[in-house]
TrEMBL record:
InterPro entries: Isoprenoid_synthase_dom_sf (IPR008949), Terpene_cyclase-like_1_C (IPR034741), Terpene_cyclase_plant_C1 (IPR044814), Terpene_synth_N (IPR001906), Terpene_synth_N_sf (IPR036965), Terpene_synthase-like (IPR050148), Terpene_synthase_metal-bd (IPR005630), Terpenoid_cyclase/PrenylTrfase (IPR008930). Keywords: Lyase, Magnesium, Metal-binding. Its cofactor is Mg(2+). GO terms for molecular function: magnesium ion binding; terpene synthase activity. SUPFAM superfamilies: Terpenoid cyclases/Protein prenyltransferases, Terpenoid synthases. This is Linalool synthase. Residues 187-426 form the Terpene synthase metal-binding domain. The lineage of its organism: Eukaryota, Viridiplantae, Streptophyta, Embryophyta, Tracheophyta. It comes from Rhododendron griersonianum. Coiled coil: none annotated.
Protein backbone atom coordinates (compact mmCIF):
# COMPACT_ATOMS: atom_id res chain seq x y z
CA UNK A 1 0.00 0.00 0.00
CA UNK A 2 2.78 2.45 0.93
CA UNK A 3 4.74 1.51 -2.18
CA UNK A 4 1.68 2.15 -4.36
CA UNK A 5 0.97 5.52 -2.73
CA UNK A 6 4.56 6.58 -3.31
CA UNK A 7 4.66 5.44 -6.91
CA UNK A 8 1.43 7.36 -7.56
CA UNK A 9 3.07 10.39 -5.91
CA UNK A 10 0.16 10.89 -3.53
CA UNK A 11 1.90 9.64 -0.40
CA UNK A 12 2.13 13.19 1.01
CA UNK A 13 -1.63 13.02 1.73
CA UNK A 14 -0.97 10.12 4.13
CA UNK A 15 2.43 11.03 5.52
CA UNK A 16 1.53 10.72 9.21
CA UNK A 17 -0.02 7.28 8.72
CA UNK A 18 2.95 6.13 6.63
CA UNK A 19 5.47 7.36 9.19
CA UNK A 20 3.60 5.64 12.04
CA UNK A 21 3.43 2.32 10.16
CA UNK A 22 7.10 2.42 9.11
CA UNK A 23 8.14 3.27 12.67
CA UNK A 24 6.23 0.20 13.85
CA UNK A 25 7.82 -1.96 11.15
CA UNK A 26 11.28 -0.66 12.06
CA UNK A 27 10.80 -1.47 15.74
CA UNK A 28 9.72 -4.99 14.79
CA UNK A 29 12.73 -5.37 12.50
CA UNK A 30 15.16 -4.66 15.34
CA UNK A 31 14.04 -7.77 17.19
CA UNK A 32 13.54 -10.08 14.19
CA UNK A 33 16.03 -12.37 12.49
CA UNK A 34 15.99 -10.95 8.99
CA UNK A 35 12.39 -11.97 8.24
CA UNK A 36 13.19 -15.61 7.34
CA UNK A 37 9.49 -16.26 6.73
CA UNK A 38 9.23 -13.59 4.03
CA UNK A 39 10.11 -13.96 0.36
CA UNK A 40 12.60 -11.87 -1.64
CA UNK A 41 10.01 -9.33 -2.77
CA UNK A 42 8.71 -8.68 0.76
CA UNK A 43 12.14 -8.34 2.36
CA UNK A 44 13.48 -6.15 -0.46
CA UNK A 45 10.46 -3.85 -0.48
CA UNK A 46 10.41 -3.53 3.32
CA UNK A 47 14.16 -2.74 3.32
CA UNK A 48 13.74 -0.09 0.61
CA UNK A 49 10.75 1.61 2.19
CA UNK A 50 12.50 1.88 5.55
CA UNK A 51 15.81 3.09 4.13
CA UNK A 52 14.01 5.68 2.00
CA UNK A 53 12.61 7.17 5.20
CA UNK A 54 16.05 7.34 6.79
CA UNK A 55 15.88 4.20 8.93
CA UNK A 56 19.32 2.62 9.12
CA UNK A 57 18.19 -0.97 8.64
CA UNK A 58 21.08 -3.41 8.13
CA UNK A 59 21.72 -4.93 4.72
CA UNK A 60 22.38 -8.33 6.26
CA UNK A 61 18.62 -9.03 6.02
CA UNK A 62 19.56 -10.38 2.58
CA UNK A 63 21.90 -13.04 3.98
CA UNK A 64 18.93 -15.41 4.21
CA UNK A 65 18.90 -15.50 0.41
CA UNK A 66 22.52 -16.60 0.06
CA UNK A 67 23.91 -20.14 -0.02
CA UNK A 68 26.82 -21.61 1.93
CA UNK A 69 29.28 -20.31 -0.68
CA UNK A 70 28.10 -16.75 -0.08
CA UNK A 71 26.27 -16.40 -3.40
CA UNK A 72 22.62 -15.61 -3.94
CA UNK A 73 20.62 -18.84 -4.23
CA UNK A 74 20.04 -20.08 -7.78
CA UNK A 75 16.32 -20.70 -7.15
CA UNK A 76 15.80 -16.94 -6.88
CA UNK A 77 16.57 -16.64 -10.59
CA UNK A 78 12.97 -17.24 -11.65
CA UNK A 79 11.42 -14.77 -9.19
CA UNK A 80 11.07 -11.78 -11.52
CA UNK A 81 9.08 -9.69 -9.04
CA UNK A 82 11.56 -10.41 -6.26
CA UNK A 83 14.56 -9.64 -8.47
CA UNK A 84 13.05 -6.29 -9.46
CA UNK A 85 12.50 -5.42 -5.80
CA UNK A 86 16.04 -6.55 -4.93
CA UNK A 87 17.52 -4.43 -7.72
CA UNK A 88 15.69 -1.33 -6.49
CA UNK A 89 16.68 -2.01 -2.87
CA UNK A 90 20.34 -2.27 -3.91
CA UNK A 91 20.31 1.37 -5.02
CA UNK A 92 20.03 2.47 -1.39
CA UNK A 93 23.46 1.08 -0.53
CA UNK A 94 26.11 2.96 1.36
CA UNK A 95 29.88 2.47 1.18
CA UNK A 96 31.09 -0.88 2.45
CA UNK A 97 27.85 -2.77 1.85
CA UNK A 98 29.26 -5.45 -0.44
CA UNK A 99 26.10 -7.54 -0.17
CA UNK A 100 24.07 -4.81 -1.87
CA UNK A 101 26.69 -4.42 -4.60
CA UNK A 102 26.41 -8.17 -5.18
CA UNK A 103 22.62 -7.88 -5.15
CA UNK A 104 22.74 -5.16 -7.81
CA UNK A 105 25.00 -7.19 -10.12
CA UNK A 106 23.11 -10.44 -9.53
CA UNK A 107 19.59 -9.04 -10.08
CA UNK A 108 20.62 -6.86 -13.03
CA UNK A 109 22.28 -9.77 -14.85
CA UNK A 110 19.30 -12.09 -14.34
CA UNK A 111 16.66 -9.49 -15.21
CA UNK A 112 18.52 -8.51 -18.35
CA UNK A 113 18.69 -12.16 -19.34
CA UNK A 114 14.94 -12.58 -18.86
CA UNK A 115 14.00 -9.67 -21.15
CA UNK A 116 13.72 -11.76 -24.36
CA UNK A 117 11.53 -14.39 -22.68
CA UNK A 118 8.88 -12.15 -21.11
CA UNK A 119 5.60 -10.89 -22.50
CA UNK A 120 5.40 -7.28 -23.58
CA UNK A 121 4.06 -5.92 -20.28
CA UNK A 122 6.56 -7.81 -18.13
CA UNK A 123 9.46 -6.82 -20.40
CA UNK A 124 8.43 -3.17 -20.14
CA UNK A 125 8.31 -3.40 -16.34
CA UNK A 126 11.74 -4.98 -16.14
CA UNK A 127 13.24 -2.49 -18.59
CA UNK A 128 11.75 0.44 -16.66
CA UNK A 129 13.10 -0.94 -13.37
CA UNK A 130 16.61 -1.38 -14.78
CA UNK A 131 16.69 2.06 -16.39
CA UNK A 132 14.87 4.03 -13.70
CA UNK A 133 15.05 2.28 -10.31
CA UNK A 134 12.66 3.93 -7.86
CA UNK A 135 15.24 5.26 -5.34
CA UNK A 136 16.90 7.26 -8.13
CA UNK A 137 13.77 8.30 -10.00
CA UNK A 138 11.03 10.91 -9.63
CA UNK A 139 7.69 9.25 -8.93
CA UNK A 140 5.61 12.16 -10.18
CA UNK A 141 7.15 11.77 -13.62
CA UNK A 142 6.36 8.05 -13.83
CA UNK A 143 2.97 7.76 -12.08
CA UNK A 144 1.06 7.48 -15.35
CA UNK A 145 3.14 4.55 -16.65
CA UNK A 146 2.86 2.86 -13.23
CA UNK A 147 -0.94 2.92 -13.40
CA UNK A 148 -0.91 1.66 -16.98
CA UNK A 149 1.44 -1.22 -16.17
CA UNK A 150 -0.35 -2.39 -13.00
CA UNK A 151 -3.98 -1.64 -13.88
CA UNK A 152 -6.20 -4.62 -13.08
CA UNK A 153 -3.39 -6.44 -11.25
CA UNK A 154 -3.26 -4.62 -7.95
CA UNK A 155 -6.58 -3.64 -6.39
CA UNK A 156 -4.97 -0.81 -4.47
CA UNK A 157 -3.88 0.86 -7.72
CA UNK A 158 -7.37 0.70 -9.18
CA UNK A 159 -8.89 2.02 -5.98
CA UNK A 160 -6.50 4.96 -5.76
CA UNK A 161 -6.52 5.86 -9.47
CA UNK A 162 -9.29 8.44 -9.13
CA UNK A 163 -7.53 10.17 -6.24
CA UNK A 164 -4.24 10.14 -8.16
CA UNK A 165 -5.89 11.70 -11.22
CA UNK A 166 -7.51 14.45 -9.17
CA UNK A 167 -4.23 15.12 -7.41
CA UNK A 168 -2.29 15.24 -10.68
CA UNK A 169 -4.66 17.81 -12.16
CA UNK A 170 -4.57 19.93 -9.03
CA UNK A 171 -0.76 19.89 -8.96
CA UNK A 172 -0.62 20.58 -12.70
CA UNK A 173 -2.81 23.65 -12.25
CA UNK A 174 -0.57 24.86 -9.42
CA UNK A 175 2.57 24.34 -11.51
CA UNK A 176 1.07 26.23 -14.46
CA UNK A 177 0.26 29.16 -12.19
CA UNK A 178 3.80 29.14 -10.81
CA UNK A 179 5.33 29.11 -14.28
CA UNK A 180 3.31 32.21 -15.19
CA UNK A 181 4.34 33.90 -11.97
CA UNK A 182 8.03 33.23 -12.58
CA UNK A 183 7.82 34.12 -16.28
CA UNK A 184 6.36 37.51 -15.41
CA UNK A 185 9.22 38.12 -12.98
CA UNK A 186 11.78 37.03 -15.57
CA UNK A 187 10.27 39.31 -18.22
CA UNK A 188 10.24 42.27 -15.84
CA UNK A 189 13.93 41.68 -15.02
CA UNK A 190 14.82 42.37 -18.66
CA UNK A 191 17.94 40.17 -18.60
CA UNK A 192 16.87 38.30 -21.73
CA UNK A 193 17.10 41.59 -23.63
CA UNK A 194 20.30 42.79 -21.97
CA UNK A 195 22.15 39.47 -22.41
CA UNK A 196 21.18 38.21 -25.85
CA UNK A 197 23.95 35.59 -25.80
CA UNK A 198 22.70 33.89 -22.63
CA UNK A 199 20.22 31.07 -22.32
CA UNK A 200 16.57 32.01 -22.03
CA UNK A 201 14.92 28.87 -20.62
CA UNK A 202 12.46 29.75 -17.85
CA UNK A 203 10.57 26.47 -18.17
CA UNK A 204 13.74 24.41 -17.82
CA UNK A 205 14.88 26.44 -14.81
CA UNK A 206 11.51 25.95 -13.12
CA UNK A 207 11.73 22.17 -13.58
CA UNK A 208 14.47 21.95 -10.92
CA UNK A 209 12.34 23.33 -8.02
CA UNK A 210 9.30 21.54 -9.40
CA UNK A 211 11.17 18.24 -9.13
CA UNK A 212 12.84 19.00 -5.79
CA UNK A 213 9.90 20.46 -3.86
CA UNK A 214 7.06 18.13 -4.77
CA UNK A 215 4.56 19.00 -2.05
CA UNK A 216 1.99 21.46 -3.49
CA UNK A 217 2.15 23.56 -0.31
CA UNK A 218 5.64 24.77 -1.28
CA UNK A 219 4.30 26.86 -4.14
CA UNK A 220 5.97 30.14 -3.16
CA UNK A 221 9.23 28.38 -2.35
CA UNK A 222 9.32 26.89 -5.85
CA UNK A 223 8.83 30.29 -7.47
CA UNK A 224 11.48 31.93 -5.29
CA UNK A 225 13.97 29.11 -5.81
CA UNK A 226 13.66 29.37 -9.60
CA UNK A 227 15.06 32.91 -9.41
CA UNK A 228 18.59 32.02 -8.19
CA UNK A 229 18.59 29.00 -10.50
CA UNK A 230 17.97 31.28 -13.49
CA UNK A 231 20.82 33.55 -12.39
CA UNK A 232 23.21 30.58 -12.06
CA UNK A 233 22.59 29.75 -15.72
CA UNK A 234 22.96 33.39 -16.80
CA UNK A 235 26.21 33.95 -14.87
CA UNK A 236 27.54 30.62 -16.16
CA UNK A 237 27.00 31.86 -19.73
CA UNK A 238 28.74 35.15 -18.98
CA UNK A 239 31.81 33.22 -17.85
CA UNK A 240 31.72 30.49 -20.50
CA UNK A 241 30.54 32.33 -23.58
CA UNK A 242 30.98 36.08 -23.54
CA UNK A 243 33.06 37.83 -20.88
CA UNK A 244 36.76 38.61 -21.23
CA UNK A 245 39.08 37.42 -18.48
CA UNK A 246 39.59 41.00 -17.27
CA UNK A 247 35.83 41.65 -17.13
CA UNK A 248 35.21 38.34 -15.38
CA UNK A 249 37.81 39.17 -12.74
CA UNK A 250 36.17 42.53 -12.03
CA UNK A 251 32.71 40.94 -11.94
CA UNK A 252 33.92 38.31 -9.44
CA UNK A 253 35.47 41.03 -7.25
CA UNK A 254 32.14 42.90 -7.27
CA UNK A 255 30.26 39.77 -6.14
CA UNK A 256 32.80 39.15 -3.37
CA UNK A 257 32.49 42.74 -2.17
CA UNK A 258 28.68 42.70 -2.61
CA UNK A 259 28.80 46.37 -3.49
CA UNK A 260 26.85 48.09 -6.25
CA UNK A 261 29.60 50.67 -6.61
CA UNK A 262 32.07 47.92 -7.53
CA UNK A 263 30.51 47.46 -10.98
CA UNK A 264 31.07 51.01 -12.22
CA UNK A 265 33.88 49.96 -14.59
CA UNK A 266 32.06 46.94 -15.97
CA UNK A 267 30.23 46.77 -19.34
CA UNK A 268 26.49 47.35 -19.31
CA UNK A 269 25.47 43.67 -19.55
CA UNK A 270 27.52 42.83 -16.47
CA UNK A 271 26.10 45.78 -14.53
CA UNK A 272 22.62 44.62 -15.46
CA UNK A 273 23.35 41.07 -14.29
CA UNK A 274 24.97 42.14 -11.02
CA UNK A 275 22.10 44.52 -10.23
CA UNK A 276 19.62 41.68 -10.83
CA UNK A 277 21.67 39.34 -8.64
CA UNK A 278 22.03 41.91 -5.85
CA UNK A 279 18.37 42.96 -5.81
CA UNK A 280 16.96 39.44 -6.15
CA UNK A 281 19.16 38.01 -3.37
CA UNK A 282 18.31 40.83 -0.99
CA UNK A 283 14.59 40.47 -1.74
CA UNK A 284 14.69 36.72 -1.09
CA UNK A 285 16.64 37.29 2.15
CA UNK A 286 14.02 39.80 3.33
CA UNK A 287 11.17 37.38 2.58
CA UNK A 288 12.97 34.64 4.52
CA UNK A 289 13.53 36.99 7.44
CA UNK A 290 9.84 37.93 7.50
CA UNK A 291 8.74 34.30 7.33
CA UNK A 292 11.26 32.63 9.64
CA UNK A 293 12.96 35.36 11.68
CA UNK A 294 16.47 34.71 10.35
CA UNK A 295 18.31 37.00 7.94
CA UNK A 296 20.29 34.72 5.59
CA UNK A 297 21.93 37.44 3.47
CA UNK A 298 25.48 36.58 4.62
CA UNK A 299 24.99 32.92 3.75
CA UNK A 300 23.41 33.69 0.38
CA UNK A 301 26.07 36.22 -0.57
CA UNK A 302 28.85 33.77 0.32
CA UNK A 303 27.37 31.11 -1.94
CA UNK A 304 27.35 33.51 -4.88
CA UNK A 305 30.93 34.56 -4.14
CA UNK A 306 32.11 30.94 -4.01
CA UNK A 307 30.29 30.18 -7.27
CA UNK A 308 31.86 33.11 -9.14
CA UNK A 309 35.27 32.35 -7.65
CA UNK A 310 35.00 28.81 -9.05
CA UNK A 311 33.79 30.11 -12.42
CA UNK A 312 36.79 32.44 -12.56
CA UNK A 313 39.25 29.64 -11.75
CA UNK A 314 37.81 27.63 -14.64
CA UNK A 315 37.90 30.63 -16.97
CA UNK A 316 41.61 31.07 -16.23
CA UNK A 317 42.26 27.38 -16.89
CA UNK A 318 40.64 27.43 -20.29
CA UNK A 319 42.08 30.82 -21.25
CA UNK A 320 45.55 29.39 -20.65
CA UNK A 321 44.75 26.18 -22.50
CA UNK A 322 46.05 24.18 -19.55
CA UNK A 323 43.64 21.73 -17.94
CA UNK A 324 44.27 20.88 -14.28
CA UNK A 325 44.55 17.32 -13.05
CA UNK A 326 41.26 15.50 -12.59
CA UNK A 327 41.21 15.84 -8.79
CA UNK A 328 41.78 19.61 -8.90
CA UNK A 329 39.22 19.97 -11.68
CA UNK A 330 36.49 18.12 -9.78
CA UNK A 331 37.11 20.04 -6.56
CA UNK A 332 36.35 23.30 -8.38
CA UNK A 333 33.69 21.83 -10.68
CA UNK A 334 31.60 20.62 -7.73
CA UNK A 335 31.35 24.26 -6.59
CA UNK A 336 30.77 25.62 -10.11
CA UNK A 337 27.84 23.20 -10.52
CA UNK A 338 25.77 25.74 -8.57
CA UNK A 339 24.22 23.06 -6.36
CA UNK A 340 25.47 24.76 -3.20
CA UNK A 341 23.76 28.01 -4.21
CA UNK A 342 20.49 26.17 -4.88
CA UNK A 343 20.45 24.08 -1.70
CA UNK A 344 21.46 26.92 0.61
CA UNK A 345 18.60 29.02 -0.81
CA UNK A 346 16.27 26.03 -0.46
CA UNK A 347 17.34 25.41 3.15
CA UNK A 348 16.37 28.95 4.17
CA UNK A 349 13.23 29.09 2.03
CA UNK A 350 11.90 25.93 3.69
CA UNK A 351 12.69 27.42 7.10
CA UNK A 352 12.87 24.07 8.89
CA UNK A 353 15.30 23.78 11.80
CA UNK A 354 17.20 27.04 11.22
CA UNK A 355 19.70 27.35 14.07
CA UNK A 356 23.25 28.71 14.31
CA UNK A 357 24.51 25.11 14.18
CA UNK A 358 22.58 24.13 11.03
CA UNK A 359 23.36 27.46 9.33
CA UNK A 360 27.08 26.98 9.97
CA UNK A 361 26.80 23.45 8.66
CA UNK A 362 24.96 24.38 5.47
CA UNK A 363 27.46 27.19 4.86
CA UNK A 364 30.31 24.69 5.05
CA UNK A 365 29.31 22.47 2.10
CA UNK A 366 28.09 19.40 4.04
CA UNK A 367 28.08 15.96 2.47
CA UNK A 368 24.43 16.14 1.43
CA UNK A 369 25.34 19.14 -0.78
CA UNK A 370 28.70 17.97 -2.11
CA UNK A 371 27.36 14.49 -2.96
CA UNK A 372 24.46 15.98 -4.92
CA UNK A 373 26.82 18.42 -6.65
CA UNK A 374 29.22 15.62 -7.57
CA UNK A 375 26.39 13.59 -9.12
CA UNK A 376 25.26 16.57 -11.19
CA UNK A 377 28.73 17.58 -12.35
CA UNK A 378 29.84 14.08 -13.33
CA UNK A 379 26.58 13.33 -15.14
CA UNK A 380 26.99 16.53 -17.12
CA UNK A 381 30.62 15.68 -17.87
CA UNK A 382 29.68 12.32 -19.35
CA UNK A 383 28.70 14.38 -22.37
CA UNK A 384 25.63 12.32 -23.24
CA UNK A 385 23.73 15.51 -23.94
CA UNK A 386 24.77 19.02 -24.82
CA UNK A 387 22.69 22.05 -23.92
CA UNK A 388 21.06 23.11 -27.13
CA UNK A 389 21.39 26.83 -26.43
CA UNK A 390 24.93 27.10 -25.09
CA UNK A 391 28.17 26.80 -27.02
CA UNK A 392 30.68 27.65 -24.29
CA UNK A 393 33.51 25.33 -23.27
CA UNK A 394 33.71 24.67 -19.56
CA UNK A 395 35.74 21.49 -19.40
CA UNK A 396 35.07 17.90 -18.52
CA UNK A 397 36.28 15.36 -15.98
CA UNK A 398 36.57 12.90 -18.86
CA UNK A 399 39.13 15.15 -20.59
CA UNK A 400 41.12 15.64 -17.40
CA UNK A 401 41.10 11.92 -16.62
CA UNK A 402 42.41 11.04 -20.07
CA UNK A 403 45.17 13.63 -19.69
CA UNK A 404 46.12 12.17 -16.30
CA UNK A 405 46.04 8.60 -17.62
CA UNK A 406 47.90 8.62 -20.90
CA UNK A 407 46.60 6.05 -23.34
CA UNK A 408 43.27 5.68 -21.57
CA UNK A 409 40.26 5.43 -23.89
CA UNK A 410 37.13 7.53 -23.71
CA UNK A 411 35.18 4.41 -22.68
CA UNK A 412 37.59 3.74 -19.82
CA UNK A 413 37.24 7.35 -18.64
CA UNK A 414 33.45 7.12 -18.82
CA UNK A 415 33.50 3.88 -16.81
CA UNK A 416 35.47 5.70 -14.13
CA UNK A 417 32.96 8.55 -14.11
CA UNK A 418 30.07 6.10 -13.74
CA UNK A 419 31.87 4.44 -10.82
CA UNK A 420 32.34 7.85 -9.18
CA UNK A 421 28.66 8.68 -9.67
CA UNK A 422 27.76 5.38 -7.96
CA UNK A 423 30.08 6.25 -5.05
CA UNK A 424 28.56 9.73 -4.78
CA UNK A 425 25.11 8.14 -4.55
CA UNK A 426 26.33 5.90 -1.74
CA UNK A 427 27.58 8.97 0.12
CA UNK A 428 24.25 10.72 -0.46
CA UNK A 429 22.35 7.66 0.78
CA UNK A 430 24.49 7.73 3.93
CA UNK A 431 23.80 11.43 4.48
CA UNK A 432 20.06 10.80 4.33
CA UNK A 433 20.02 8.17 7.06
CA UNK A 434 18.89 9.18 10.54
CA UNK A 435 20.07 10.86 12.57
CA UNK A 436 21.21 13.80 10.48
CA UNK A 437 21.29 17.53 11.07
CA UNK A 438 18.65 18.53 8.53
CA UNK A 439 14.89 18.24 8.32
CA UNK A 440 13.32 15.33 6.45
CA UNK A 441 11.87 17.81 3.96
CA UNK A 442 15.26 19.34 3.11
CA UNK A 443 16.83 15.89 2.90
CA UNK A 444 14.17 14.56 0.51
CA UNK A 445 14.32 17.72 -1.59
CA UNK A 446 18.10 17.36 -1.93
CA UNK A 447 17.59 13.74 -2.99
CA UNK A 448 15.03 14.84 -5.57
CA UNK A 449 17.53 17.28 -7.01
CA UNK A 450 19.95 14.39 -7.56
CA UNK A 451 17.14 12.28 -9.03
CA UNK A 452 16.42 15.07 -11.51
CA UNK A 453 19.95 14.99 -12.95
CA UNK A 454 19.60 12.01 -15.34
CA UNK A 455 16.44 13.54 -16.81
CA UNK A 456 18.17 16.88 -17.31
CA UNK A 457 21.25 15.44 -19.00
CA UNK A 458 19.95 12.46 -21.01
CA UNK A 459 18.46 12.26 -24.49
CA UNK A 460 15.81 9.92 -25.90
CA UNK A 461 16.63 6.72 -27.79
CA UNK A 462 17.13 8.72 -31.00
CA UNK A 463 19.57 11.09 -29.25
CA UNK A 464 17.53 14.07 -30.40
CA UNK A 465 15.11 15.24 -27.71
CA UNK A 466 16.02 15.55 -24.02
CA UNK A 467 14.09 13.09 -21.86
CA UNK A 468 13.14 16.11 -19.77
CA UNK A 469 11.26 17.68 -22.67
CA UNK A 470 8.75 14.82 -22.74
CA UNK A 471 8.20 15.15 -18.99
CA UNK A 472 7.76 18.93 -19.26
CA UNK A 473 4.93 18.46 -21.74
CA UNK A 474 3.31 15.68 -19.73
CA UNK A 475 3.54 17.39 -16.35
CA UNK A 476 2.48 20.87 -17.36
CA UNK A 477 0.32 20.74 -20.46
CA UNK A 478 -1.20 17.32 -21.16
CA UNK A 479 -4.83 16.63 -20.32
CA UNK A 480 -4.06 13.55 -18.29
CA UNK A 481 -6.18 10.83 -16.77
CA UNK A 482 -4.03 8.43 -14.79
Amino acid sequence: MIDTLQRLSIDYHFQEEIEALLQKQYMESTISDGYPEFDLYEVSTRFRLLRQEGYNVPADVFNNFKNKEGRFKSELGTDIKGLMALYEASHLSIKGEDILDQAADYSCLLLDGWMMNLDQRQARLVDSTLRYPYPKNLARFTARSFVSDYKGINGWVDGLQELATMDFKMVQSTNQREILQFSEWWKDMGLANDLKFARNQPLKWYMWPMAALTNPRFSQQRVELTKPISLIYIIDDIFDVYGTLEELTLFTEAVNRWDLAAVENLPYYMKSCFNALYDTTNEIAYKIFKAHGWNPIDSLQKTWASLCNAFLVEAKWFASGQLPNSEEYLKTAVVSSGVHVVLVHMFFLLGHGITRKTVDLVNDNPGIITSTATILRLWEDLGSAKDEDQDGHDGSYVDCYMTDHKGSSVNRAREEVNRMISDAWKCLNQECLSPNSFSACFTKSSLNLARMVPLMYSYDDNHKLPILQEHMKSMLYDDVSL
